[in-house]
Amino acid sequence: MGAEVIHYQMMDVHAGGHAKAEDLKFFIQLVKPKYFIPIEGHHSFLRLNAKNAEAAGIDPKNIFVADNGQVIEFTRRGGFLTNKKVPADYVFVDGLGVGDVSNIVIRDRQQMAADGMIVVIVTIRARTGELVQNPDLISRGFIYMKENKSLVEDTRKKVRSLLKDYDSRTSANDIYIKDKIRNEIGKFLFQRTERRPMVLPVIIEV
Question: Residue 96: what pLDDT?
């Protein structure tokens, strides 16, 4: 059409696709809407858009600035902003699941991505809680075990010492042992590495 177009690949320029204030006023005067509901953008932008609409002649009572999820109702008597809210949070799509990823799962993934994980496998006697064999360790994203033999062996010693404290006169309590390993080994590894890997205790009773 004969226009000279300058775009971002030619030089460092950015052209917004949003209309300016005077353009919006002109549009409102052309359409003459009864109600004006600014949407999308920061709340402060919505407020500025509402003021602009009022300056263009819209009745302030018919301008609704709603929060995310806030319900606006319209009946034969007119429209009004309610105090009702519907869920308007982010919905995570994870594989075949939609909205079934909890905050705890996301937190666990972030922790594993940042510091990795270590699995502590202990075999104990069910009747006494006594350790049967040397604890096994599996590291993923935390340390390369072949290059950190000293830390691996010290961690095994720490696990053995934790289970020595267990009262052999009582039967094994899985939950107590797992919590103790998780907490104490987590502290121990942080002192040695200043990293917080996810510690996953696995108890095998024989």
Answer: 78
